[in-house]
Amino acid sequence: MLTYIIRRLIGAVAMLVVISMVTFGIFYIVPQWAGATPEALASRYVGRAATPETVHLVAQKLGFYDPVVVQYGRFLKSLIFGAEYDYGAGVEQCPAPCFGYSFITGQPVWPDLIDRLPVTISLAIGAALIWVAVGIGVGVLSALRRGSFFDRLSMGTALAGVSLPIFFTGMITLVFFSYGLGWTAPGGAYVPFTQNPALWAYDLLLPWITLAFLFAAGYARLTRAGMLETMGEDYIRTARAKGLREREVIVKHGLRAALTPVLTLFGIDFGLLIGGAVLTETTYTLPGLGQYAILAIRNQDLPQVMGVVLMAALFVVIASLIVDMLYAVVDPRVRLS
Asked: Which single residue of 17, 25, 54, 204 could bond 50 by disulfide (Cβ 3.0 to 4.6 Å)?
């Protein structure tokens, strides 16, 4: 078990290094391949009224004329130890971890990400609890009642949930439940959990349900398919022949084996949501990482966009690492591999 955990930790660190290379390549190397000059890259860090001489000087000070390896080393060093940006008019400090410095707002990106992270985490955790409970529960019942009215109704609803985009269902639920019936918050507000737990849940209830509806549909279909496959295996018939209770056969033997692909999907989905639930936060005007990314794109603030990308990648790797650990709990064969 310890060897398995060490291997997964080493793999996670290696993946983070690869992600840093890919991110650096997307934001610094690919634009140069597309024809961008060092002056074009430096133009992000100066005002619109800057002269060509000023832009050229800034490009030199920021190291855009240096070899790619040197630039990547400086980028990696800034992530761990922080950085200083000398853009001619002054030197800006970006404390570690430096996920970029926005010269449009005049602020490091990392504090902005930390300020908005609780909103996205709250949205992701609440929705995840709902979609896992509902999705797995409906999937198991549909598999056990294959061909019944419940099975057809739940799978039809799941198909609608997978097919309908989040901004469509979000708008419909806002019109009906918030503006029509007045049962839920109309969006745009967020109260920290530590300040008022009841108001925190009230503000996020509709986004939770809307987001969970999208994901629960896929989890129900995946769980149903896994249960139909595992419940027909020989070891299930052997367990029943031994006289085990049906609940124990379903939960301990059938569901446990069917959860492996569900765990894989959950790790990816949850990590991406913490990196920024873009459509949900935009639909409900929640000040999270998703809305932050949209505003950065509109303002063409590439350091902020790069910060969100790095944050999303970081949480996907962390979520995948946790899922790898859970594999060993759910499936004993993983501990022996």
From this structure: 54
- At residue 61, the pLDDT reads 78
Question: Rounded to whole angstroms, what are the CA distances from 123 to 46, 322, 328?
Answer: 36, 19, 28
What CA–CA distances, in Å, run from 205 to 118, 211, 235, 291? 16, 10, 42, 18
The DSSP code for 43 is G
Among 126, 281, 152, residue whose Cα is nearest residue 220: 152
**Residue 324 · residue 5 · CB < 8 Å:** no
Whether the Cβ atoms of residue 184 and residue 100 lie closer than 8 Å to each other: no
Reply yes or no on whether the pLDDT at 192 is more than 60: yes
N- to C-terminal Cα separation, the chain: 10
Please tell me the predicted confidence (pLDDT) of residue 170.
81
> What per-residue confidence (pLDDT) applies to 259?
77
Prior bond of 192 cis (ω within 30°): no
Residues contacting residue 73 through CB under 8 Å, at least 6 positions apart: none
Please report which helix (H) or strand (E) contains residue 93, including its range.
strand 91-94
List the domains of the chain with CATH numbers: 2-98 (no CATH), 110-335 (1.10.3720.10)
173 pLDDT above the threshold of 80: yes
- pLDDT(276) > 70: no
302 or 126, which is more confident? 126
Q: What percent of the chain is predicted at pLDDT more than 70?
A: 92
Query: 220 to each of 223, 272, 274, 280, 322, how far by Cα in Å?
Result: 5, 20, 22, 21, 22
pLDDT at 74: 86
CA-based nearest residue to 42, from 65, 26, 23: 65
Per the CB < 8 A criterion, the answer to whether 275 and 308 are in contact is yes
Spatial distance between the Cα atoms of 112 and 117, rounded to a whole number of angstroms: 9
What tens digit of pLDDT does each residue of 85-125 get? Answer: 766 566 778 888 888 888 778 788 899 999 998 998 998 89
